[in-house]
Design goal:
It is a single chain. The protein is α/β, with parallel strands linked by helices. The protein is 40% helix and 16% strand. The chain has two domains: 264 residues, 3-Layer(aba) Sandwich (Aspartate Aminotransferase, domain 2), CATH 3.40.640; 48 residues, no CATH class. The protein is built from 15 helices and 15 strands. The strands form three sheets. It has a seven-stranded mixed beta sheet, sandwiched between helices. A hairpin with a 4-residue loop joins strand 2 and strand 3. Helix 4 packs across helix 12. The two termini are 38 Å apart. The mean pLDDT is 95. The chain binds pyridoxal-5'-phosphate (PLP). Pyridoxal-5'-phosphate binds next to helix 5.
Length: 431
């Protein structure tokens, strides 16, 4: 049996979509069984901050394997204490307590618990098109109509008390307005939602600062400052899910630092460890963390594993030493510019959005083929031509967006290569 046959025979195929087997990774490239290389502009869901096969990170993990590996969250380790200190150092001022997790989803669950406990209950408000993970609470906050929401049997697993507000999605405004004259209707609607759902008894508003999986939705300037004001007005906590946008992906260590808005709780994951071992973290204000100290109600066997902490520490050390956050900002701006040049060339590209190395472009149909078919064809053609991206495409959500969040080591040459492949793939799809 081939690897693919074995995989299809034994693995529950609830995630796998592409018939590709990767056997090796180095730098910006993954290699399949035939030796063909693929430029990784997905960064494997944005987790792979240093690219593939980073020797320094591998060496640090090898040394950690020999030193100490299995210690549960019941005990302190040098690695855990050092990473806790580092996380507080790199995060916005005022976030002084941290807890570690294994995935973005479980970190979001903890953030929700923190908010509910600190506020003594209350609704959680999130945004349509936002994504927060696949465990129950994180999925309930998700506003993207994933399988768990759509399938009537599975949706029974979703907890109650979650409400979705209108997303700040100017290209597809829920109110049919134009950005120049809308007066930020989505912000007004959020206030209405807060008032209707409990007013000063709302537990929290949770969102990604830039909605990544929902189609790289960059809220208009001033939106987050407005949300912060509303949260302060009604006493709700603001949770930023920076599982994708954090750790340099958007050109600042955390996207909220660009926005100059500090949340009460900040969640990060994916790229925190460089993606070589699972790991996530939740940061919060001191008093929120200290309130939670009183009760013993959260932790996973592997949450604070020394391997996770070592991986994150080494990853952050390399990111800082090599100026990779600045690289994300500069190379991301270059990618944005090159995508805009493609937009001039191809009518089907309607909007280019993003910040730093989180970029995406929205597609419409060309009259012969609808946008969903075109998006799928383009995605497959790019993959065939050796470029890995992600496709956000859902008929019920009416958007088709090619999403990219490559590693922070991405160079201008990598961008040129990626854009060349997108160009070539568009040409053949539109023939
Ligand atoms: C913004 C955001 N939050 C949370 C998650 C969940 O992270 P994980 O897949 O590690 O559980 C994701 C995953 O894609 C995400 O994009």
């Amino acid at each position: 049996m081939t690897t693919l046959e074995k995989d299809k025979k034994y693995l529950i195929q609830c995630y796998t979509t592409d018939d590709l087997v990767f056997v090796k990774g180095k730098g910006m490239y993954l290699y399949d069984e035939t030796g063909k290389s693929y430029l990784d502009f997905s960064g494997q869901f944005s987790a792979c901050t240093l690219g593939h096969g980073n020797e320094e990170l591998a060496e640090a993990l090898r040394a950690q394997l020999e030193k100490i590996v299995s210690v549960t969250s019941c005990f302190a380790t040098e690695e855990r204490a050092a990473l806790a200190e580092k996380m507080v150092e790199i995060s916005p001022e005022g976030l002084d307590k941290v807890m570690f997790g294994c995935t973005g989803s479980d970190a979001n669950e903890f953030a929700l618990k923190l908010a509910k406990y600190y506020r003594g209950g209350g609704r959680i408000i999130s945004f349509r098109r936002g994504f927060h993970g696949s465990t129950a609470g994180a999925a309930a906050a998700t506003g993207k109509s994933e399988m768990i929401q759509e399938h009537s049997a599975i949706s029974e697993l979703l907890p109650r008390g979650f409400v979705h507000s209108a997303p700040p999605y100017c290209y597809h405004c829920d109110f049919g307005k134009e950005p120049k004259s809308c007066g930020m209707q989505c912000l007004k609607y959020l206030e209405q939602t807060m008032l209707h759902e409990g007013g000063d008894r709302i537990a929290a508003v949770i969102s990604e600062p830039i909605f990544a999986a929902g189609g790289v939705i960059v809220p208009p300037e001033g939106f987050w400052k407005g949300v912060r004001k509303l949260c302060d007005k009604y006493g709700a906590l603001l949770i930023f899910d920076e599982v994708v946008t954090g750790i340099g992906q958007t050109g600042t260590m955390f996207a909220c630092q660009y926005e100059e808005v500090t949340p009460d709780i900040l969640v990060t994951g994916k790229g925190l460890t460089g993606g070589y071992v699972p790991g996530s973290a939740v940061l919060c204000r001191k008093e929120i963390g200290e309130a939670m100290d009183q009760i013993n109600l959260h932790g996973h066997t592997h949450s604070c594993y020394p391997m996770t902490c070592r991986s994150a520490l080494k990853n952050l050390e390399i990111i800082e030493r090599d100026g990779l956050v600045d690289n994300s900002s500069a190379t991301g701006a270059y990618l944005h510019q090159k995508l805009n040049e493609l937009k001039e060339k191809y009518d089907v590209i309607k909007d280019v959005r993003g910040r730093g190395l989180l970029q995406g472009f929205e597609i419409e149909g060309d009259g012969r083929e609808d946008k969903y078919a075109l998006g799928q064809k383009l995605y497959e053609e790019m993959l065939k031509n050796g470029l890995i991206t992600e496709l956000e495409s859902r008929r019920n959500l009416e958007n088709v967006v090619v999403v990219m969040h490559p590693a922070l080591i991405t160079s201008r040459e990598n961008v040129d290569e990626a854009v060349e492949i997108i160009d070539k793939s568009l040409q053949s799809c539109l023939k």
